[in-house]
């Protein structure tokens, strides 16, 4: 169970990082306003920080069997 939970979190981390790439792309192509892009990018930084923290400290929240 632990490995499945950590695997899912790693997938989420990758998806969030990919979203940041698409935000940058959208701003550079003019599809997204720069300020909105910065705000979204910052939000994803917070999400990534939380995911990394959960991955690095999984012993504090995963149930033990």
Describe the fold and architecture:
By secondary structure, this protein is mostly helical. It has one domain (2-60). The chain is 77% helix and 0% strand. It is built from two helices and no strands. The protein has helices at residues 2-28, 34-56. It starts with a helix and ends in a 9-residue tail after the last helix. The mean pLDDT is 91.
- The unreliable regions are none
Give the termini separation: 9 Å
Global mean pLDDT? 91
Number of strands: 0
Alpha-carbon Rg, integer: 15 Å
| Count of DSSP H/I helices | 2
Task: Using brief descriptors, characterize the structure shown.
65 residues; 2 helices; elongated
Quick gist of this model?
The chain contains two helices and no strands.
Give the helix/strand layout.
Layout: H1 2-28, H2 34-56
Helix pairs in contact: 1-2
